[in-house]
Design brief:
- It is a single chain.
- This protein has 261 residues and is of the alpha/beta class.
- The protein has two domains: 177 residues, P-loop containing nucleotide triphosphate hydrolases (Rossmann fold); 62 residues, no CATH class.
- Helices cover 40% and strands 23% of the residues.
- The strands form two sheets. The protein has a six-stranded mixed sheet, with helices on both faces. A four-stranded antiparallel sheet has the order 2-1-4-5, with helices on one face.
- A hairpin with a 2-residue loop joins strand 4 and strand 5.
- Helix 6 runs parallel beside helix 7.
- The structure holds adenosine-5'-triphosphate and magnesium ion.
Length: 261
Amino acid sequence: MQDNILEIKNLSKYFGGLAAVSNCSLKIKQGTVTGIIGPNGSGKTTLFNLIAGNLKSSAGSVLFNNENITDVPSYELFSKGLLRTFQIAHEFTNLSVLENLMMVPGNQSGEKLMNALLKPRLVAKEESQIKEKAIEVVDFLNLSHLKNELAGNLSGGQKKLLELGRTMMVDAKLVLLDEVGAGVNRTLLKDLGTAIEKLNKEKGYTFCMIEHDMDFIGRLCDPVIVMAEGSVLFEGSVKDAKKDERVIESYLGRGSKLKDN
Ligand SMILES: Nc1ncnc2c1ncn2[C@@H]1O[C@H](COP(=O)(O)OP(=O)(O)OP(=O)(O)O)[C@@H](O)[C@H]1O
Ligand SMILES: [Mg+2]
């Protein structure tokens, strides 16, 4: 049996009187690409914010590889290999693509002033290793031709690729993707999908991805989790989700049943 890389138990988040995430429980199996779908406002991003330490929970717990990580801040999770991307890409617009990637590994000794003063060669060596890694990442993502371009000049889709690239600068184990495919054109979406598949198969990343594009979800994800009103409405294959009465009712809409069969 596959191990659970993530287990969420009775997790809740209240904003005033509103339960954005409500008594939510789910498990993500190691090695999967798990999709999360659901109507706007059903709590998907809030769930990611709680898992990734960007928000404090109101109740419940989160286990990562059986370790309790509830309310552990994002920078600590980052070093454990739990990373996320944001629904709105947040690149450094005035840095190049390569420089954006080189910003990611947080604990390089170049950040420590003492090292910079006393061990300049160590710092230079680490920087060149990080640069090499960044070049590997842009190659992997087919962004080599843009490596010296300012990130602010990239298209929306290319920024999404860069977001994915950031997760490749460290040894990620679980990556949470928040609508990484949204606003990305068909060709680039295909590249993005291929990159996700490759990272999953070749580097052993487990992915959990929020998406609204059912074709994209269908191509990449098994299983899919459907959220509604802050908790899990359905979990299973994409095929079964499309046939499920409650899923159709709350998310896919009546027309979808005929269209997808
Ligand atoms: N910081 C916040 N303060 C107050 N309410 C919030 C906050 N963040 C989210 N909410 C509310 O919580 C609910 C869930 O929002 P969330 O962003 O998690 O939904 P979502 O499923 O990601 O939606 P979408 O598909 O539109 O991205 C919404 O009603 C939203 O308005
Ligand atoms: Mg969202």
